[in-house]
């Protein structure tokens, strides 16, 4: 089991147009009344996933996608380097929790 956590300030979060967000993430966040906290939550989730997988700070965050089906908890989908890192570590199942309040968003990732 590996754990990653990241606390993001809304002002440090890249804009929706940033290449780190996938079209799915961008669409989900921009459909919200206040997109910034949702973008920050996804950014925190990507960074927490990097921590759980022991990836370098320069990992391609666009290869980590946060998905959410209506009425369900958010999930993580990996591509490229992060997917190879998970395979190398023998981890394949991810549990994700995202929360935001005020100027902050936090994400916790547990991989098994």
User: Based on DSSP secondary structure assignment, what is the total number of beta strands?
Assistant: 5
> What's the order of the H and E elements?
EHHEEHEE
Which strand order spans the largest sheet, edge to edge or round the barrel? 1-5-4
Helix segment count? 3
In the CATH classification, which architecture applies? Alpha-Beta Complex
CATH class: Alpha Beta
- As a percent range, the share of strand residues is 25-35%
Question: Number of folding domains?
Answer: 1
Q: Tell me about the biggest sheet?
A: 3 strands, antiparallel
CATH superfamily, please? Answer: 4'-phosphopantetheinyl transferase domain
Nearest-angstrom radius of gyration? 13 Å
Structural category is alpha+beta
Straight-line distance between termini: 5 Å
Shape: globular
Mean pLDDT: 94
What's the CATH topology name?
Ribosomal Protein L22, Chain A
- What proportion of the residues is helical, as a percent range? 25-40%
What order do the helices and strands come in, and which of them pair?
Elements: E1 2-9, H1 23-30, H2 35-52, E2 64-67, E3 75-78, H3 80-89, E4 94-101, E5 104-111
Antiparallel strand pairs: 1-5, 2-3, 4-5
Helix pairs in contact: 1-2
Give short descriptive properties of this protein.
single chain; 112 residues; alpha+beta; Ribosomal Protein L22, Chain A; three-stranded antiparallel beta sheet; two-stranded antiparallel sheet; 5 strands; 32% helix
Brief account:
The chain is of the alpha+beta class. Helices cover 32% and strands 29% of the residues.
């Amino acid at each position: 089991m590996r754990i990653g956590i990241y606390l993001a300030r809304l002002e440090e979060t890249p804009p929706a147009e940033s290449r780190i967000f996938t079209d799915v993430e961008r669409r989900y966040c921009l459909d919200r009344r206040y997109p910034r906290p949702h973008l920050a939550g996804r950014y925190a989730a990507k960074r927490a996933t990097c921590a759980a997988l022991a990836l370098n700070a320069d990992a391609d965050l666009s290869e980590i996608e946060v998905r959410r089906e209506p009425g369900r908890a958010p999930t993580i989908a990996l591509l490229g380097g992060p997917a190879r890192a998970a395979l190398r570590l023998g981890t394949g199942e991810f549990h994700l929790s995202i929360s935001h309040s005020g100027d902050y968003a936090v994400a916790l990732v547990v991989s098994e």
